[in-house]
Write a structure and sequence with these properties.
The complex is a heterotrimer of chains A (334), B (505) and C (587). Chain A has helices at 2-29, 34-38, 45-54, 61-73, 87-122, 128-141, 144-158, 181-187, 191-227, 231-238, 243-280, 286-295, 299-327. Chain A is an all-alpha fold. Chain A has a domain at 89-297: Orthogonal Bundle (MetI-like fold), CATH 1.10.3720. In chain A, α7 (144-158) crosses α11, α9 (191-227) packs across α11 (243-280) and α11 runs parallel beside α12 (286-295). Chain A starts with a helix and ends in a 7-residue tail after the last helix. Chain B has three domains: 6-43 and 189-259, Periplasmic binding protein-like II (D-Maltodextrin-Binding Protein, domain 2), CATH 3.40.190; 62-177, Dipeptide-binding Protein, domain 1, CATH 3.90.76; 266-478, Roll (Dipeptide-binding Protein, domain 3), CATH 3.10.105.10. A seven-stranded mixed sheet of chain C has the order 6-7-8-3-9-10-11, sandwiched between helices. A six-stranded mixed sheet of chain C has the order 17-18-19-14-20-21, with helices on both faces. Chains in contact: A-B, A-C. The interface between A and C is medium-sized, with 25 and 31 residues.
């Protein structure tokens, strides 16, 4: 099993290289002028040319790529053009927040997806099925940013029940230890701040989670229907095993495998979808950083954040695949 | 054991209080939560020109000179200033009772460091561009310094109150370096920075050793909310106490809700059409016809609830550059006549291109479309192209802008040099008008030392520009602001919203 | 008190608005400790009884009349939770497909634990090990089903079924999916356990000889009705119902004189067809049928040996002629010559390479029928594929009609295709569902660019050869029965009149009567066209009937080869002996 894991890691390197090449190339093809963006509007043409040379933008694209690749492999992600600060520092500040949000959303999507799938399966051939189908279709047609706005409207404004800006109540100070806020609040023992952070994360995490849950529901339901045709389910029934036990102890364990694979894919999209949700909820994560960077043609940030997204999505899919291997003894190569 | 139980008890108490209280976002009467549309670009205030962040910087840092709510230049860290008659040097006298947040005393050394030393040390700062004529700053005593220039620089005092001109401490900055300063900034302002999360929030606490009027509110929290709908929701649900930049209709609707007040405040931002002197606009008749055909009052009513003041000059009412009584009328009949004189009519329209941004300032795209429709009625066919704000400068440098661009220009000082001078100077990136006749006049005006002559000269230039169709001012922009009923603040003519002017009751 | 008692049990389904009885008036009794065999071809309804006992009938089917009792308790009227209580405790089930009857993601131990805990056994681990021991398995509680062979899985399932010491075990075709040697062991194990625990067993199978070997009594089912019910040895030795006799005569025997196979026409009517039938359901195919048979349903009469037919006096008129010894190829010219053939499959992902075929040499003369027998994993299918060029050999030489066809070149391919054709096992998947029968059988001609008229003519010829009516040429495969599809397969292979036909398990999975029809067809076609046949089969009786030479394969090697009658009468190799002894009905 270790061999399979290592082989997986090896496969990742060329993917990252390809993504970095695409990012780099695409950005250089766009009609933007990062050198001009880096100077105030009052700069003269001469000053802008000087900036262009200082940034190395006058050299051939292949040379630029080689330089950038070398720096990135050494851990030097360059400096943000707009903010004139090291990109690595910006990533270190924002990536943990996005990871926290995405993890929370994944948990919600997973619970909703699996629970919903089980529920829909229980309703099959019954009266409630058509209603459930319509509801999931509706859910699927709303993208995550629309969910975000809807939840703000209902829970933030109409019911005034939950906060939807920032990460903490205004009266509280943010403890900084590991940059993972939820962890830090517990590390410094401030449970009230912890709960405030949790409350602030509810709406954005739900916006993301609810948007990505419906396909999981459908796949689990279809998977369960397929699994129920299998011989061993019938055999278990013939042994007198009760229906609940069959569902949870036999069918679910098999039906979850293709569902998990889908969840891996969904979570990859979820991580990317966090971008818009962060902007709407003023959530200070990597997505927020990226949106500004795109507006300002801040190439170092765009490149670094793009690569980070790639790495995280690859990690997520690898993790899920590993989980599937764990749960499916047939894949363990024995 | 006691430790543990105390921890458990306090945790339980916090939990109980959280569960017991409903949204406890409002903090109490000695603090305020502001919902602001954009973040600062780092905490080095000299580094980048960010007009929207000026108000925030002004809470933590002071400027050498300040503006009062009516935008008149007033002393701040500088007690007194005197421009030499030839305009080549500026004598400055500083206050001696100003302390930085770290307790050190502010001296003229800090002034020299901020405005000259930093740039000379090779740091990449935007304020390097503000004081191009500066050749050096002589420190005479801890409270006296002289700025020296290579050509007359009458507007330097204005610039000392403008973008990026904030005082930073020399000793502290040299000790911790720029990166250290950005992580833990130190200024002289009425508030200290306590917490900062990029794109998240800014938490400020009152500086009790402040040299000026002490702020009423102990704590200011600025929530960075970039999405306008989220800002509307935030003020409506009470999660913030004051916010700006909501759509005009929302401001009106929110104002009608009990407990909230909506305001449309005119600010020093002008919305105008920047114009080329060649291609489709080489004919003056077409230019003037285009200007006459625009119903500015209708634009104001449609997009700003009538609160935006129509302009005939590239200057706002009340600023020195304005000429009271000068009007460029809305006259579609005149427009048709002018076009006919050049051989154009509804059947044979004049063709031009127009660029505008979408989302750069409120209603930019819609206004552009409205103008295109107005032009269609008189016989001008305009093709609209949406560009990014940054692209404007790129296209201008390459000479590829269309005949006209809908533009918005901010000038917090109100000084005419920054209006007409910057908008019409062919050497600066703002102007697509490259005609040397007007251009020479504009460039020359930058060097006039005598204040009265200077202002008068700018007025003449503005008038001429509008008369020949080199510039088409449209409206004075408004700031939409919504606040809770009890939240009072000082209204500045340039839209600064600052915590030190706020108070409840 | 009898363990199981069915009286006039009717299971009905509603097909196209008409009620059809899948089980019609079934009456039988199973005494404690006895084994009752329920024998019938596919579609006879034998599985229905098992499902009715568990009340897990397919949707649309229901018990509409009669009574079904378990130990005096009415199974049909029972409350669902009471019945669920019986399942797994008092009534055990052994399934047909052992490999898929165990949850693939749970260990054997965890599934055992679930079962034993339900039975109230606290120390499930030692109980499970004891149960495995009783079926001669080691402690494999931590293994997973995919790591076990089919036989081992079936033994686990048997252990689980008998662990609760049930009063009744229903075994639904428990050995059909297993190799014949494994079958013998499983059946012996079941017998031992059944005797030890005095369990009553309902043994459902399609193999009459196997039933006779295992069961005390046999009930023969045809189209949902019991046609004969009596002691096992009596029914086997002296069947009195025409169907039973025909069934017995249609299945080739492994010992005794070689006879022709009785070819019952058509096949058993399906459910839909049953709706329109009145009277005896066997009448359309019965050699003793009279008009009266089609009007009234014959009753099951007799005391220990019951028969549902009024014409048992004429039973001896149903006979088959003896067959001459299989003809030996007249010309003796070598058609196929294989020397040192080997095939090694490379291991993927670090697995060891598999040697599928190891140093096999043999030859086939023109017109000769050669059989290859072996169990699963013996390499016989790989051998067939190597001959046909579907796999690339790793060593050795293959010559067809004197030419080396081992290569992959176009010339080799063309030669191969002209000389040899293959017929596959599963007729369903071997026929393109979107093409008509006429087009399918002349596929080779189409590929050669022959014109439409000529192809139509040839299709008519082939269908006549196959004994199929001409109008079937315009049907799609889905409209044909399994036997008809297999004929189309054979017809397609014979289109270009190849010299060699390679048939891979072409009659496994077919009903005995259909199998008999196909075997007769092959014999007739051989007489007409004179092609050689390499028949791959696990069924030794079929090979004995059809082929004059046989090769016995095991683990990729040929352990014994020679003339069929000699090899089967005097097996030299231990494995051949074991194989022959495992076949039910072996002398």
């Amino acid at each position: 099993m270790l061999a399979a894991f290592l082989r997986r890691l090896l496969a990742v390197a060329p993917i990252l290289a390809l993504v970095s090449l695409l990012l780099f190339g695409a950005l250089r093809l766009l009609p933007i002028d990062p050198a001009a963006m880096s100077m105030p509007p009052t700069a003269t043409k001469v000053e802008i040319e000087a900036a262009r040379q200082a940034m190395g933008l006058d050299r051939p694209v292949t040379v630029q790529y080689a330089i950038w690749l070398g720096q990135t492999l050494r851990g030097d992600f360059g400096n943000s053009i707009h903010m004139r600060r090291p990109v690595a520092g910006l990533l270190a500040e924002t990536l943990p927040a996005t990871i926290e949000l995405s993890l929370a959303a994944m948990v919600i999507a997973g619970l909703l997806g699996l629970g919903g799938g089980l529920g829909m399966f229980a309703l099959r051939d019954r009266r409630g099925e058509a209603v459930a189908e319509t509801v999931t279709t509706l859910m699927m047609s709303l993208p995550e940013f629309l969910w975000a706005l809807l939840l703000i409207f209902v829970f933030g404004v109409l019911l005034s029940a939950l906060p939807f800006t920032g990460r903490l109540d205004p009266g509280m100070t943010r403890p900084v230890v590991t940059q993972f806020l939820l962890l830090d609040t517990l590390l410094v023992g401030r449970v009230d701040v912890f709960f405030s952070a949790v409350r602030h994360m509810i709406l954005p995490a739900f916006a993301l989670g609810v948007a990505f849950a419906p396909p999981i529901m459908r796949v689990l339901r279809a998977s369960l229907i397929d699994t129920y045709q299998e011989d061993y389910i019938r055999q278990a029934r013939l042994r007198g095993v009760g229906e609940t036990r069959i569902l949870l102890g036999h069918a679910l364990q098999n039906a979850i495998l293709p569902t998990l694979t889908l969840m891996g894919v969904q979570f990859g999209f979820l991580f990317g979808g966090s971008l818009l949700v962060e902007v709407i909820y003023s959530y200070p994560g990597m997505g927020n950083l990226m949106v500004d960077a795109v507006r300002n043609a801040d190439l170092p940030i765009i490149q670094a954040v793009g690569l980070t997204y790639c790495v995280v999505v690859l990690a997520i899919t690898a993790g899920v695949d590993g989980l599937v291997m764990l749960l499916n003894p047939r894949l363990r190569g024995t | 054991m006691v430790q543990l139980s105390r921890r458990v008890f306090s945790a339980g108490a916090s939990l109980a209080s959280i569960l017991a209280s409903l949204p406890a976002w409002a903090q109490g009467r000695d603090s305020v939560t502001i919902g602001w549309p954009s973040d600062v670009t780092g905490w080095d205030p000299n580094q980048r020109f960010t007009p929207d962040a000026q108000g925030i910087y002004k809470m933590v840092f002071d400027q050498p000179l300040d503006q009062d709510p009516s935008l008149k230049l007033i002393p701040s860290l500088i007690k007194a200033w005197k421009l030499a008659p030839d305009g080549m040097s500026l004598d400055l006298e500083f206050r001696d009772d100003v302390k930085f947040h770290d307790g050190s005393k502010m001296t003229a050394e800090d002034f020299q460091w901020t405005f000259f030393g930093r740039v000379a040390a090779g740091q990449k700062l935007d304020i390097a561009n503000s004081f191009r004529k500066l050749t050096g700053i002589d420190v005479i005593s801890p409270t006296k310094a002289v700025m020296k220039f290579n050509s007359p620089a009458p507007t330097v005092p204005v610039w000392l109150a403008f973008l990026g001109s904030f005082m930073v401490p020399k000793a502290y900055m040299e000790k911790v370096g720029v990166d250290g300063f950005v992580a833990k900034p130190v200024g002289t302002g009425p508030y200290k920075l306590v917490e900062y999360q990029m794109n998240g929030r800014i938490v400020l606490e009152r500086n009790d050793d402040y040299w000026g009027t002490k702020p009423k509110l102990k704590r200011v929290v600025i929530e960075i909310i970039k999405d306008p709908s989220a800002r509307v929701a935030a003020i409506q649900s009470g999660q913030v106490d004051i916010t700006v930049g909501v759509p005009v209709r929302e401001a009106e609707r929110l104002g009608a809700i009990a407990g909230l007040k909506g305001e449309l405040n005119p600010i020093q931002r002008v919305i105008l059409l920047q114009v080329r002197n060649d291609q489709g606009f080489s004919d003056q008749n077409i230019r003037l016809a285009a200007h006459h055909a625009i119903d500015k009052a209708a634009l104001s009513k449609a997009f700003y609830g009538g609160a935006a003041v129509p302009l005939s000059l590239p200057a706002t009412p009340g600023t020195p550059g304005d000429i009271a009584g000068f009007k460029f009328p809305y006259d579609p009949a005149m427009a048709i006549k002018l076009l006919a004189a050049s051989g154009y009519s509804l059947a044979k329209p004049a063709k031009i291109g127009m660029a505008c941004t979408n989302g750069q300032f409120p209603n930019d795209y819609d206004m552009a479309r409205a103008i295109v429709a107005m032009w269609k009625k008189v016989g001008i066919e305009a093709e609209l192209e949406v560009i990014e704000y940054a692209k404007y400068f790129e296209l201008n440098r390459a000479g590829k802008l269309p005949e006209t661009t809908l533009y918005s220009f901010d000038n917090a000082t109100g000084d005419p040099e920054i209006y007409s001078g910057y908008l019409l100077n062919p050497k600066l990136p703002f102007s697509p008008w490259k005609d040397p006749v007007l251009g020479e006049k504009v460039i020359a005006q930058f060097n006039v030392a005598d204040e009265t002559k200077r202002i008068e000269g700018w007025r003449e230039i503005s008038k001429e520009a509008v008369t020949i169709g080199a510039c088409m001012p449209l409206l004075q922009s408004v700031q939409t602001l919504v606040r809770k009923d009890g939240m009072g603040y000082t209204k500045y003519g340039n839209g600064w919203v600052m915590g030190q002017t706020m108070g409840w009751g | 008190m009898s363990v199981l008692r069915a009286e006039n049990l009717c299971v009905t389904a509603r097909i196209d608005g008409v009620d059809v009885a899948a089980l019609d008036g079934l009456s039988l009794t199973l005494a404690p400790g006895k084994v009752l065999g329920l024998v019938g071809e596919s579609g006879a309804g034998k599985s229905m009884l098992g499902r009715a006992i568990a009340q897990l009938l397919p949707p649309g089917f229901a018990v509409t009349a009669g009574m079904l009792e378990f130990a005096g308790r009415d199974l049909v009227a029972m409350a669902p939770d009471q019945r669920q209580n019986l399942l797994g405790r008092q009534i055990g089930f052994i399934p047909q497909e052992p490999l898929s009857a165990l949850n693939p993601v749970r260990s054997i131990g965890s599934q055992f634990a679930e079962h034993l805990r339900r039975l109230g056994i606290a120390d499930w681990r030692s109980a499970a090990i004891a149960a495995l021991e009783s079926v001669q398995l080691p402690d494999l509680l931590d293994r997973f089903p995919h790591q076990l062979s089919g036989g081992m899985c079936q033994r686990v399932l048997i252990a689980m079924a008998f662990a609760s010491k049930p009063a009744l075990v229903v075994a639904d075709e428990p050995t059909t999916a297993l190799d014949v040697t494994i079958q013998a062991r499983i059946v012996a194990l079941m017998r031992d356990l059944q005797v030890a625990q005095n369990t009553a067993v309902l043994f459902i199978t399609h193999d009459l000889r196997l039933a006779a070997q295992v069961c005390d009594e046999i009930a023969v089912l045809y189209a949902g009705r019991v046609v004969e019910h009596g002691p096992a040895d009596v029914v086997l030795a002296q069947p009195l119902h025409p169907y039973t006799k025909c069934l017995l005569l249609a299945a080739p025997a492994i010992s005794g004189p070689r006879t022709a196979l009785y070819a019952l026409p058509d096949q058993m009517p399906g459910l839909r067809a049953l709706a329109e039938m009145s009277g005896c359901r066997f009448a359309p195919r019965c050699p003793l049928a009279r008009d009266a048979c089609r009007e009234s349903v014959p009753a099951l009469a007799g005391d220990t040996h019951k028969i549902a037919c009024p014409h048992i006096a004429e039973i001896d008129t149903i006979t088959v002629p003896a067959l001459a010894p299989a003809m030996v190829a007249a010309t003796g010219e070598t058609l196929v010559s294989v020397a040192g053939l080997g095939k090694v499959f490379r291991g993927r992902f670090g697995r060891k390479p598999t040697i599928a075929v190891r140093d096999v040499s043999f030859s086939i003369a023109a017109g000769e029928f050669v059989g290859v027998v072996g169990e699963s994993g013996s390499g016989k299918s790989t051998l067939a594929r190597l001959l046909m060029g579907l796999e690339q050999k790793t060593s050795g030489e293959i010559r067809l009609a004197g030419q080396d066809v081992g290569g992959w070149g176009a010339a080799a391919r063309r030669l191969r295709l002209r000389t040899a054709q293959m017929v596959f096992q599963d007729p369903q998947s071997a026929l393109n569902p979107r093409r008509r029968v006429g087009a399918i059988v002349t596929q080779a001609l189409e590929a050669a660019g022959v014109g439409l008229a000529e192809r139509r003519a040839r299709a008519a010829e082939i269908l006549a050869d196959l004994g199929m009516p001409l109008e079937l040429a315009d049907r799609a495969p889905s409209q044909l029965s399994g036997g008809q599809r297999q004929r189309v397969n054979i017809g397609r292979a014979l289109c270009l009149v190849p010299k060699l036909l390679v048939a891979d398990e072409i009659v496994s999975g077919l009903d005995v009567s259909v199998q008999a029809q196909l075997l007769a067809l092959l014999a007739r076609l051989r007489a007409e066209h004179g092609f050689a046949l390499l028949l791959i089969s696990h069924d030794l009786a079929v090979v004995r009937y059809l082929c004059e030479r046989v090769m016995v394969m095991r683990n990729g090697e040929v352990v014994e080869a020679g003339r069929t009658d000699e090899v089967f009468a005097n097996p030299q190799h231990d494995y051949t002996r074991e194989l022959l002894a495992s076949v039910p009905g072996a002398a």
